[in-house]
Amino acid sequence: MKKRLLYTVVLASALFVPTFASASVIQVDGFGAGGWKSDDTRSATGTNLVGTNNTHAGRPGQAPTAADDTAIATQIQFVAGPAGSTYGGAVSMDGTSSNSGKSNFSVINTTTGFDAASNLVGPTSTFIATYDWYGQPNPTTRTLALKLGIQSTAWGTGVGESQNGFTATRSGESVWDLVLVFLPATSDNAWTTVSTDHDSGNWNLFRQAGNGFFTTAPDTVAKTLDAWAADATYGSLLFGADALVTSVQFGLGSSQRDSIAYVDYLQTNLLNGGDVINFGPAAVPEPGSLALLTLGLAGLAMRRRKVAA
């Protein structure tokens, strides 16, 4: 089943996404590897967990502790299973026993950003993200979010800017003021490959918790990125000049108790030049799965050559 899903989705992606520049493998097998750490991870009681080593951008006013590192490591783990993934191993995120809990895993760039947000949208968009994930419901079906944190065109601490007089109330939220959240279809006890780009997939938009700068609530209806770019209120804020993608995240959000989600790999033009980011302990890819992934990438490259011709 896994190989058939991978073959179908990757080849179908050739119909609407740009190709990747390369397909080397970057191993992320622990906190800090490849720049990946926790952000906005909360215990089952809703307590913000801010570790000395395992957290990126801590919660202002909360001292990082080694105890929180330990707690984070119980909710976000680098594991060998479930079996059947493309590269073997995964990072697991635990929804905890309460809807107040949350597990979030991210990489950030607060200086130059990973890319101009304007490159996420439009007919010349270079954005693509493909990842392999597995949902383990217990007992309720859940889903795992891919998130893009954006420093909008209003970012800054000056008068009339989004951070003026505001202090982030959650770890990780000090590096963006708006976040786009992609929720794929559920995947119960099976590895599923998901792809999204500028005009496919459903994205919700959220503001920093407690920040009243954005007085108009984002549209509650999920849209493609291109549709958000056309939004009268948020389009120019998200994708205008100087807006940056500063955070790429996976998260099993609040209200997803008694569930565990796994990510095998992520491949996106935003990170590592499009190299595959393999989460979990290093393992040799299954020959059949790797061959299908290579075939899919070759299909993307062939499509690009035909378009260029």
From TrEMBL:
<feature type="domain" description="Ice-binding protein C-terminal">
    <location>
        <begin position="283"/>
        <end position="305"/>
    </location>
</feature>
<feature type="region of interest" description="Disordered">
    <location>
        <begin position="44"/>
        <end position="65"/>
    </location>
</feature>
<feature type="signal peptide">
    <location>
        <begin position="1"/>
        <end position="23"/>
    </location>
</feature>
<keyword id="KW-0732">Signal</keyword>
<feature type="compositionally biased region" description="Polar residues">
    <location>
        <begin position="44"/>
        <end position="56"/>
    </location>
</feature>
<protein>
    <recommendedName>
        <fullName>Ice-binding protein C-terminal domain-containing protein</fullName>
    </recommendedName>
</protein>
<dbReference type="InterPro" id="IPR013424">
    <property type="entry name" value="Ice-binding_C"/>
</dbReference>
<dbReference type="Pfam" id="PF07589">
    <property type="entry name" value="PEP-CTERM"/>
</dbReference>
